[in-house]
């Protein structure tokens, strides 16, 4: 029987990001994917034209339905929209989930649309991230979580671990160099670097890379890989896709 991963996040109408991307990654890596939806979006790789929040009652029901039937190994969260949705997700995971949690702190879309309001950021910090095994911010998201620009990525990763109490994968994809560096910082403060060339991806190929990376790591964790190995294999999967 395949391991089960649950993705909680927004629906992407073009399929390149959000829960659609997560489910495709789970399938590619041999795990069974379930989903709970926080918001419906009308979007393509260029822009998001509309966001419709899913009711809190529906989100609650979807999460309960999954846990009522499946033994969920790993949960991955993406777009959570606002403080109310973060609160529901946090409370239910605290109550129902005994496994690992990978949080992709989705705050701004690649097209520049805000996907998590300030209240949601505060709730993320205080309610959800204390439950996390791993958080996967890019440089811009790390700056929001830290309350200031990232100058030294290694120091920023360590500060985030101290602040959040979970391992951190600080992604370097928003950097300007051709050689990009992702930094995994564990609870002990030890940093493992993952270097890779900037890919000549098109706009549509770049869309949803953060979603796919976090879901690949979640899938590998469900297959009982260590955190360092899961991150390494997740990075390799993304680069090879």
Automatic annotation (TrEMBL):
Signal peptide (from-to):
none
Q: Name one Pfam family in it.
A: Phos_pyr_kin
Q: In which pathway does it act?
A: Cofactor biosynthesis; thiamine diphosphate biosynthesis
Q: What is its EC number?
A: 2.7.1.49
Report the Gene3D superfamilies cross-referenced here: 3.40.1190.20
Metal-binding recorded as keyword? no
Offer one example of a GO biological process linked to this entry.
thiamine diphosphate biosynthetic process
- UniProt keyword annotations, A-Z: Kinase, Transferase
Q: Which GO terms describe its cellular component?
A: cytosol
Entry's InterPro entries? HMP/HMP-P_kinase_dom, PM/HMP-P_kinase-1, Ribokinase-like
Name of the featured protein: hydroxymethylpyrimidine kinase
Q: Give the source species.
A: Mariprofundus aestuarium
């Amino acid at each position: 029987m395949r391991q089960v991963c649950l993705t909680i996040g927004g629906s992407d109408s073009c399929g390149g990001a959000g829960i659609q991307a997560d489910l495709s990654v789970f399938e590619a890596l041999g795990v069974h994917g379930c989903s709970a939806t926080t918001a419906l979006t009308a979007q393509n790789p260029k822009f998001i034209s509309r966001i419709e929040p899913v009711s809190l009652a529906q989100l609650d029901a979807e999460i309960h339905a999954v846990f009522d039937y499946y033994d969920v190994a790993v949960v991955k969260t993406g777009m959570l929209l606002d403080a109310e949705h973060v609160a529901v997700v946090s409370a239910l995971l605290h109550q129902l989930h005994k496994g690992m949690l990978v949080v992709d702190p989705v705050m701004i879309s690649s097209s520049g649309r805000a996907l998590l309001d300030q209240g949601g950021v505060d709730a993320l910090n205080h309610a959800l991230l204390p439950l996390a095994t791993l958080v996967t911010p890019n440089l811009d998201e790390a700056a929001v979580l830290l309350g200031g620009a990232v100058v030294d990525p290694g120091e920023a990763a360590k500060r985030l671990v101290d602040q959040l109490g979970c391992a951190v994968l600080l992604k370097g994809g928003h950097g300007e160099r051709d050689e990009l560096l992702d930094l995994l910082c564990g609870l002990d403060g030890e940093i493992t670097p993952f270097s890779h060339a900037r890919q000549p991806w098109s706009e549509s190929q770049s869309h949803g890379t953060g979603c796919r990376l976090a879901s690949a790591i979640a899938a590998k964790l469900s297959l009982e890989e260590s955190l360092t190995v899961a991150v390494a294999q997740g990075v390799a999967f993304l680069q090879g896709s």
